[in-house]
Amino acid sequence: MTAVSQSGRALVAAELRRFGTFVLQELKPKGRVLTPFNVISGAIMLVAGVLLTIRFAKGLGAITNLSQDYPWGFWIGFDVITGVAFAGGAYVLTFMVYILGQEKYHPIVRVTVLNGFLAYVFYAGALLLDLGRPWNVINPIIGNSFGVSSVLFLVAWHFMLYMMAEFVEFSPAVAEWLGWRRVRRFLGGLTLGAVIFGITLSLLHQSGLGALYLMARDKVHPLWYSEFIPILFLVSSIFAGLSLVIFEATITHKVFRHRVGAALHGSHDDIVVGLARIAAGTMFVYLFLQLLVFVHGQRWSYLGTGLGAWYLLEMVGLVALPAALFIQGYRSRDLRVIRTAAVLTLLGIVLNRLNVSVIGFKWYAPVRYIPSWMEIEVTLAVIAAELWVFRWVVNRMPVLGTAVGLVREEPSREARAGVLAA
Amino acid sequence: MDRRDLFKTMGAAAGTALVGGGLKAEEPSVSGVEPVGILVDTTKCIGCRSCEYACADAHKDAGVEVTDEVDFSAERVTDEKHWTVVNRYDTEKGTIYAKKQCMHCRQPACASACLTRAMHKTAEGPVVWTENRCMGCRFCMVSCPFDMPKFEYHSAVPRIQKCVMCAERLAEGKQPACVENCPAGALTFGPRSALLEQARQRIYAAPDAYVHQVYGEDEVGGTGWLYLASVPFAQLGFRTDLGTTPFPTYTREFLYAVPVVLTVVPPLLLALSRASRARAEAQTDAHDEEGNA
Question: What is this model's ipTM?
């Protein structure tokens, strides 16, 4: 045993201790604990904990209104199918920045990727709550039973792989937080590969969520069913994701004002206006596709019914109108108009996904499914838990207004010290 | 850097192409084995519900029960405790009874929807469910055109429940319990092709007693259970709008696109990324030169 190796070991031990204290320090909450938001969201999560205990002890029927006619309800229709569409912003923005080289949008990539990653983690988590036999969830992954003819097999694999890709895209922020410069450089080198892989996966599983309903062709109302559901889901995920980015930027900009870096602070308005324009463009493409499907599917006869009016509300009130508002907001650089448009668009996406998966599903059934308050409560708890983690990360890691991945320069030691002190 | 990116991307894409390359959208037809089926002649059914009792008796362990008092005025459907039900229909030719249960499709939507192959079609004909594979996602229920898989919502260890055509009895060389216990001779068990011939024979022998259609011969690509009736099948609560295309076909095109997208899109994105970076660098260079001049 030489003196050198002993001192080396002592150095490693000291380094590990320092790392441990740092992480423990970071785990503690910053700021006041008993804020109204914390109290309310904490209570929601506690109630959900009780409800989920009942659910796992007595079965799904104990807290949900699911039935033999409605095997998929609010947890799938909203948490998973709508949630994943909302998380589409990550693949759209990484495409614009890393593939098209639109550097203007670089400052919001990191927060969008974080949002997308957390959305997948929590919504995939919500999927586990809905599974009747969740302990078998690894079966399609470990290979003892590959159901390769299933669209859900594809979606499950892609959820998992995409979560990994998004984590790799976000990982430089974690390395910066921990002060690991060499790891940071290595992870930064993986970004482009992860982005390309992530975009490809997103194309397939965003459309795949629509393809889940291809075999339910006789169950989904003809105003919402078409063979083009996969393409409609994919195109709408683009402006759904962008609208969520606009909506989220508005909120984080207020709530995490102290964490917003100079790069984002200066260009925030420009970014939002630019996103509004792209959202509007994709919405017009979507409307045109919907029109084609409408004519092709000979849907006129349904317009006179109650669900026909509901359909028009979705297409005109929550797609065409916000698209026009996005254009107007872009022309006059009016952020309030753009935010209004974003909220309307998000409502339109919620409506569309629920119309396919719940409202228009078995529209002919004598007993319709309406979610129980407990299903909605658990959904709120999932969102609350996601917000807690999001806040924890944003308050510690360089997320807002700092560039991700391919940035050329390392943050200086001083800057990092500043980040850690904040 | 560029070449490494290329390899990384290609490697990742190839990896997913392998796992995601699901081109098999239907169960294989095993040559040499003639799949079995059951022919229901609704003109012979007397509505005694012996089949329901026999089913409950044969599948007690799976939790199947039978309801003693049944009010025929409302149409019943199968559920997690009743794998088969007999319904009464008032038709243009008077009262007709029809037994309903899983149809055991030749290319089942439920099996192609199952991501763990828990639901699968056996070479002998029955569509069965394997408990230790199923993760309870209920996609089979969403996909089945006849709404036959049922779920135990009030169990912590829920099962998917439906008629399994007594696959375990078939393995012992016996007939399905309902067929064996039908006192009216309304149910016939045998190889599907032989049943089809017998069904046609009955129609030709008594052309006025039957509508000239065997329900299940072509519906959704053909089903294991076949039906004969004296009135159009819509009057007996059968869906007649399902078409003759096997349901797995509807997702096959989408699944075919998967390996194509996974292999073509990543190189395209990489090329696009390099092109846009080269353009940005050219612009920066031009800008620098202007600044220097």
Answer: 0.87
